[in-house]
Amino acid sequence: MQAQQAWAEQVDLFAVAGVVHCLLHGEYMDLTPTPQAGASESYMPKLPLKRYWQVEMWTGLFDALINACARGAPPDLGQLRAGLEGFLYEGKGAAKRAGMRMALIKQA
């Protein structure tokens, strides 16, 4: 969308990335181009992730959702969901995230 190319489902993926960004940062998402060797230009959120956040997970999520058009195929949403559920329900600090899980369950 940033490159003024045609899009279909990418607008929905971009909206999900925008919502996640607002939940993490409390601000709307601005994008910045990130050069990649031998690949088309990709975009990532301008605001950096905090070092104690799951940086690899969030970077992968934003990359998959924002740059879906550059890859030519939509991301595997089931895999992205499984990664987020694994973060919420398992691993170090899962007990601290119980409040977040309950808030998400109440919204459903």
Low-confidence stretches: none
Structural class: mainly alpha
Number of strands: 2
Radius of gyration (CA) equals 15 Å
Number of helices: 5
Gap from first CA to last CA: 30 Å
Would you tell me the overall average pLDDT?
81
How is the largest sheet built, in terms of strand order?
A: 1-2
Largest sheet properties: 2 strands, antiparallel
Residue fraction in strands: 5-15%
Which word captures the global form? globular
Would you give an account of this structure?
The chain starts with 9 loop residues before the first helix and ends with a helix. The chain is mainly alpha-helical and 108 residues long. The protein is built from five helices and two strands. The chain has a two-stranded antiparallel ribbon. α1 runs antiparallel to α2. 51% of the residues lie in helices and 7% in strands.
Q: What is this structure's SSE topology?
A:
Elements (H helix, E strand, L loop, with lengths): L9 H16 L5 E4 L7 E4 L9 H12 L1 H4 L5 H13 L8 H10 L1
Antiparallel strand pairs: 1-2
Helix pairs in contact: 1-2
Question: Could you write a compact summary of the structure shown?
Answer:
The chain has 108 residues and is mainly alpha-helical. The chain has 5 helices and 2 strands.
Which key phrases capture this entry?
single chain; 108 residues; mainly alpha; two-stranded antiparallel sheet; 5 helices
